[in-house]
């Protein structure tokens, strides 16, 4: 299906590249920049602000720092809930990225902002969910709302969340014995 | 006999004899497409464990194998009676990825279609809530009245429930002739009609005694558990994405956010009804401000590609915030699509609300969460 | 003559023969009566499997009112039901439950496959968790195509099922 009519023509208005480092001509939104600066000031080089767009910030942390960053975001920056937890598989980089989208109900200034907190776990060629090295610390004690999202992420990508009390299966059938389905090497029928 | 030698399924567990485990669903009038494993002590629930996934169809995986336009039909299937809203964040996201600006007229028609669809969704939800509480009239009234808006949407889009009306770049086709007149007549009748529900349902002492104080969710817990939509607003949090993060034409409209303080099942069941009344106002405003003519769709190239980027867009659907996270890696197909749906987010508070409730209150609490199992499973 | 035949030795045989004759005489009208009573009171079991349940619900709404045709609203207890309307996609998690529901229902029982997903897998033909149609697990009587079928289509499917029951041999 993807091969039909792939003309090598120019794209309509090429999208903005992830601004890292941000192009100097492009003016960054002020409020978002101030938030990003605050977080960068606290953690310095350990984290990386990947882009600052209007209403959206993306921060990448190593997995050792994710608990500290999340705690800082909750206590000092008033992000109080996680909207979703997404796992993205990058087989070429041998990593699985877990993305937390954080939002705030209590701070009216942050109501329309979403902070994307990304962290990466090592990926194994032959996954054995729960007992291989694909592990991340669970954010459940910090953002309670990630409970079911992390369960879903565990079964869909095989990322085990250490400290999560309930790493059971959620959506897949009980007898699922295949690869975790959201991995890129799991191919669906006829594709 | 030692139990350790047996395989896991056959081991005899020691259970408290007072505690009984009940599997409610998936074949149960009060469950929908899911199972709730409840443990009861006498008549009181001591533990509830939701078990969704009976309609998990792997839509996110399928989206990785289809291009941006081919993804439209199957991404609206999670909530077919709210299909405009469920497709909305995906379209907004693809538009941002491709850098498309939607024509002004299309923005307003999107708002109208999305509000009509919200009413259709809420009416169905209300009808099932009536069935759950044994109130048959409350099934018949909303199920009959929603056909008005379904007819309107059918005239606009050509399909009864699965519209596939929103496409990246605008809407699929313009509205029919005589659209405003047809729409406003229906809105007026609809508004008059749903106001009558108060007399039979919301002021009904039986309903009030059934749902008042059942499944109370405090403001702090609602925030902590990350609930959304009517569940959140019934607990007194003033949060509606149509106002807080206006998308398309919502920024130009005057929208009142309905909140209630109680946080019990009654408040949660009343918020959607108030939302429907507000929807009627929004539709009237949108019709008034809509440009009377103009293009409704930006034509895309046949197989659009986007660069290395990611986008997270969210809208306020009938069940709360609905986010779509699209990661694109310079291909015609998205690299990853994730739908962060309101039903899945509200599912988390079910064990907390059901604990300590009477078993008979379970349907009243469960369905008041504005939970649609198909959407949660995706 | 009759007295000779009806001796205590062959009474059983005689009564049996009489029974056969009687059954042969009343089989057709009685079977018709049984089928007639069956087809005007079909009770669908309350099992929702996917999004087609929205249109199944709409079929009971005042505008469509499927009860006019003798199909009663979905009912809770499957022990009293004789119709399974498979409302859409069957996932691998739901399939054993659906079969269990079907097995627990008393005979005779009928199956309507509603929607493209229940017939062939439909839109989800390449999904990893969806069955390609329910033919593999249930004997289907009537297929109702559509994604989702309109309530009118479902009603037509129910009427086709009634036609079919009329022609079936009563058991």
What structural keywords apply?
heterotrimer; A: 191 residues; alpha/beta; Beta Polymerase, domain 2; 7 strands; disordered N terminus; B: 378 residues; alpha+beta; Cytochrome-c3 Hydrogenase, chain B; three-stranded antiparallel beta sheet
State the low-pLDDT regions of chain A, or none: 1-24
Which class best fits the helix and strand makeup of chain A?
alpha/beta
CATH architecture of the largest domain in chain B: Orthogonal Bundle
* Strand line-up of the largest beta sheet of chain B: 1-2-3
Compressed to H and E, one letter per element, the order of chain A equals: HEEHEEEEHE
* End-to-end separation of chain B: 44 Å
Mean pLDDT, all residues of chain A: 79
Order of helices and strands of chain B: EEEHHHHHEEHHHHHHHEEEHHHH
CATH class of the domain at 30-162 in chain A: Alpha Beta
Q: State the distance separating the first and last CA atoms of chain A.
A: 10 Å
Write a concise synopsis of the structure shown:
By secondary structure, chain B is an alpha+beta fold. Chain B has 16 helices and eight strands.
What's the layout of helices and strands?
The complex is a heterotrimer of chains A (191), B (378) and C (171).
Chain A: H1 30-43, E1 48-53, E2 56-61, H2 66-75, E3 81-90, E4 95-103, E5 114-122, E6 135-137, H3 147-157, E7 160-162
Parallel strand pairs in A: 2-5, 6-7
Antiparallel strand pairs in A: 1-2, 3-4, 4-5
Chain B: E1 19-24, E2 35-41, E3 44-51, H1 59-63, H2 71-75, H3 83-98, H4 104-132, H5 136-157, E4 166-167, E5 170-171, H6 179-195, H7 197-202, H8 205-211, H9 219-224, H10 230-234, H11 241-244, H12 265-289, E6 308-317, E7 320-329, E8 336-340, H13 342-347, H14 350-354, H15 362-368, H16 373-377
Antiparallel strand pairs in B: 1-2, 2-3, 4-5, 6-7, 7-8
Helix pairs in contact in B: 3-4, 4-5, 4-12, 4-15, 5-6, 6-12
Chain C: H1 2-5, H2 11-39, H3 53-59, E1 83-87, H4 95-104, E2 110-114, H5 116-120, E3 142-144, H6 151-167
Parallel strand pairs in C: 1-2, 2-3
Structure description:
The complex is a heterotrimer of chains A (about 190), B (about 375) and C (about 170). Chain A is of the alpha/beta class and about 190 residues long. Helices cover about 20% and strands about 25% of the residues of chain A. The longest helix of chain A has 14 residues, at about 30-45. With about 375 residues, chain B is α+β, with helices and mostly antiparallel strands. Chain B has 2 domains: about 15-50, no CATH class; about 55-375, Cytochrome-c3 Hydrogenase, chain B. Chain C is mainly alpha-helical and about 170 residues long. In chain C, strands 1-2-3 form a 3-stranded parallel β-sheet. In chain C, strand 2 (about 110-115), helix 5 and strand 3 form a beta-alpha-beta unit. In chain C, helix 2 runs antiparallel to helix 6 and helix 3 crosses helix 6 (about 150-165). The two termini of chain C are about 35 Å apart. Chains in contact: A-B, A-C, B-C. The interface between A and B is large, with 51 and 56 residues.
């Amino acid at each position: 299906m993807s091969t039909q009519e792939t003309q090598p023509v120019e794209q309509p208005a090429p999208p903005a590249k992830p601004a890292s480092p941000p192009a100097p001509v492009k003016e960054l939104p002020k409020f978002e920049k101030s938030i990003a600066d605050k977080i960068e000031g606290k953690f310095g080089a350990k984290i990386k602000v990947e882009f600052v767009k209007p209403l959206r910030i993306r921060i990448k942390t190593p997995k050792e720092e994710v608990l500290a960053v999340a705690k800082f975001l909750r206590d000092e920056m008033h992000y109080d809930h996680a909207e979703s937890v997404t796992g993205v598989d990058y087989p070429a980089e041998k990593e699985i990225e877990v993305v937390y989208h954080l939002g705030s109900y209590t701070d009216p200034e942050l109501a329309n902002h979403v902070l994307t907190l990304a962290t990466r776990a090592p990926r194994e060629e032959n996954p054995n969910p729960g007992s291989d090295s694909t592990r991340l610390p669970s954010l459940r004690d910090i953002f309670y709302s990630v409970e079911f999202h992390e369960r879903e992420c565990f079964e869909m990508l095989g990322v085990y969340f250490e400290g999560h009390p309930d790493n059971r299966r959620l959506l897949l059938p009980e007898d699922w014995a295949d690869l975790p389905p959201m991995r890129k090497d799991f191919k669906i029928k006829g594709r | 006999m030692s139990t350790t030698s047996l395989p896991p399924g056959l081991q005899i567990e020691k259970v408290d004899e007072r505690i009984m485990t009940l599997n409610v669903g998936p074949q149960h009038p009060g469950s929908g497409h899911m199972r709730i494993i409840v443990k009861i002590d006498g008549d009181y629930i001591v533990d509830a464990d939701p078990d969704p996934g009976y309609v998990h169809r792997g839509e996110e995986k399928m989206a990785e194998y289809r291009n941006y336009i081919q993804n439209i039909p199957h991404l609206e299937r999670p909530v077919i009676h709210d299909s405009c809203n469920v497709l909305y964040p995906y379209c907004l996201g693809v538009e941002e990825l491709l850098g498309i600006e939607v024509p002004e007229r299309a923005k307003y028609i999107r708002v109208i279609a999305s509000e009509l669809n919200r009413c259709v969704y809420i009416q169905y939800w209300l009808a099932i809530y009536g069935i759950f509480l044994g109130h048959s009239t409350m099934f018949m009234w909303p199920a009959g009245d929603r056909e008005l808006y379904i007819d309107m949407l059918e005239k606009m889009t050509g399909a009864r429930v699965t519209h596939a009306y929103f496409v990246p770049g605008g809407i699929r086709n313009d509205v029919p002739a005589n659209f405003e007149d047809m729409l406003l007549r229906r809105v007026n009748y609809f508004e008059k009609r749903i106001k009558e529900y108060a007399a039979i349902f919301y002021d009904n002492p039986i309903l009030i005694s059934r749902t008042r104080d059942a499944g109370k969710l405090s403001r702090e817990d609602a925030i902590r558990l990350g609930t959304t939509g009517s569940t959140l607003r019934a607990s007194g949090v003033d949060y509606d994405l149509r106002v807080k993060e206006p998308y398309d034409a919502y920024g130009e409209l005057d929208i009142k956010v309905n909140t209630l303080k109680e946080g019990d099942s009654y408040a949660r069941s009343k918020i959607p009804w108030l939302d429907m009344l507000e929807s009627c106002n929004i539709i009237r405003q949108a019709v008034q401000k809509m440009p009377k003519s103009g293009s409704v769709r930006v034509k895309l190239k046949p197989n659009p590609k986007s660069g290395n980027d990611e986008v997270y867009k969210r809208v306020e659907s009938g069940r709360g915030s609905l986010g779509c996270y699209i990661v694109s890696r310079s291909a015609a197909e998205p690299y990853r699509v994730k739908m962060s749906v309101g039903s899945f987010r509200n599912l988390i508070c079910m064990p907390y609300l059901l604990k300590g409730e009477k078993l008979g209150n379970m349907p009243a609490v469960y369905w008041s969460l504005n939970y649609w199992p198909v959407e949660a499973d995706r | 003559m009759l007295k000779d035949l009806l001796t205590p030795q062959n009474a059983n045989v005689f009564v049996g023969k009489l029974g056969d004759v009687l059954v042969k005489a009343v089989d057709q009208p009685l079977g018709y009566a049984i089928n007639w009573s069956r087809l005007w009171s079909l009770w669908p079991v309350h099992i929702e499997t996917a999004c087609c349940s929205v249109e199944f619900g709409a079929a009971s709404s005042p505008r469509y009112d499927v009860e006019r045709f003798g199909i009663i609203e979905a009912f809770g207890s499957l022990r009293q039901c004789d119709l399974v309307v498979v409302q859409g996609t069957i996932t691998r998690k739901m399939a054993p439950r659906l079969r269990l529901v079907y097995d627990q229902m008393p005979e005779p029982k009928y199956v309507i496959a509603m929607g493209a997903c229940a017939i062939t897998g439909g839109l989800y033909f390449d999904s990893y968790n969806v069955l390609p149609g329910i033919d593999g697990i249930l004997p289907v009587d009537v297929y109702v195509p559509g994604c989702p079928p309109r309530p009118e289509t479902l009603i037509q499917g129910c009427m086709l099922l009634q036609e079919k029951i009329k022609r079936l041999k009563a058991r």
